[in-house]
Amino acid sequence: MTLPTTLSAPLAHTPVLDHGFLELWNMLGADQTIAASARVSLSRELASLTDHTDKQAERDRGLINRLMRDRHTSPFESVVFQWRVRAPIFVARQWFRHRFSSFNEESGRYVELQDEFYVPDQLRVRVGKAMDYQYVDMEAEQNAQFRARIEALYHDARTLYEGMLAAGVAREHARIVLPVAQYTTFIWTVNALSLMNFLHLRNSPHAQAEIRAYAEVMEAVFAERLPWTHAAFREHWGAGAV
Ligand SMILES: Cc1cc2nc3c(=O)[nH]c(=O)nc-3n(C[C@H](O)[C@H](O)[C@H](O)COP(=O)(O)OP(=O)(O)OC[C@H]3O[C@@H](n4cnc5c(N)ncnc54)[C@H](O)[C@@H]3O)c2cc1C
Description:
This protein is an alpha+beta fold. The chain has two domains: 14-107 and 181-236, 2-Layer Sandwich (Gyrase A, domain 2); 124-177. It has helices spanning 31-39, 47-50, 54-69, 89-95, 140-166, 171-174, 192-202, 209-225, 227-236, and strands spanning 14-16, 20-28, 80-88, 102-105, 124-127, 134-137, 183-191. The model has no long low-confidence stretch (mean pLDDT 93).
């Protein structure tokens, strides 16, 4: 019997922001794995893995929908995604708040960080009342002036960093001058339940646009890899679902 693992090689690299990317690095399980995990309650776990008829698929899809609706969440923990992410440190910092998952990150102590910083094409300006504000694009000339100043600041920080490394300063000390726009790389291992919580919070109009850019790509991959679970997620997942 072959378990329905759907991925044999990492997906194509998807660029995100100016120097970032997202890759599905590895994956364990499929929609049928979730149905099988739930069916073990009735000693019928093999049905979802061995019966490839349309009728079984219909039963499994219906079961997944009911599990999601009734918050019977543990079967969704049986599918695991592993992503490789390159993102600015301020995005990673928001990401690392998601505790039901595991992270491994590039070390600024053991390697020299690459000369890559996030520069937004278009700065956002906040308008409206607190907690009810909206964003509009900064006017073009002012946007260009600030972008030039941001780039000059990053250049100075990088020059100081490299100067300290050249003088023999330890990498973990030299890095303190780098801004939170510095790019970092990490591996994120997360089960489907925790990933849905992430998508609910971060692929949302309330999330910061930069982390949302990653969550949008991730949700498209999630929908492609777990179509039944994704459909149920978007039908039933409401505020405070986990
Ligand atoms: C738009 C937005 C703005 C935010 N602003 C801020 C901010 O200003 N300051 C700030 O500090 N954070 C902020 N956060 C982070 C937020 O508070 C969460 O830490 C983050 O979204 C991770 O969500 P989580 O706890 O649901 O995820 P996970 O850590 O993956 O936890 C998943 C679920 O497990 C349960 N759980 C986890 N740990 C516990 C626990 N200790 N006790 C009980 N249940 C637990 C909860 O149900 C939780 O939803 C913001 C998040 C968003 C999306």
